[in-house]
Amino acid sequence: MYQIKVIETMRNENLTYSETLSKFNIPSHSTIIRWKRIYLEEGKEALHEERRGRSKVSDGVRKGRLKKLSKEITDDLIKENQRLKMENEYLKKLDALIRSKQNQQKKK
Predict the structure, then answer these.
(1) Looking at the whole model, is its pTM more than 0.70?
(2) End-to-end CA distance of the chain
């Protein structure tokens, strides 16, 4: 399935969300984030399930919260979050450096 291919390629090639978006022509980061969360929490088989619309009511009772994540998955998500924060800081600093150089050139 397409979603599994996207997530596994992203993980195997250590691609960022931006690189994955451009490689697979996906319009939004949130799509990949959602697919990755489902892949990590519930396994790749869960990506085959239909997830649109309201949640189903079984026996007159709404389904409760999702199961707690395993330690491995939680650690993976934390590492991914830290990596994204570092990438964001790097991009901010790079942007600031470029802007300062542009301002110096304008002053000359």
Answers:
(1) no
(2) 56
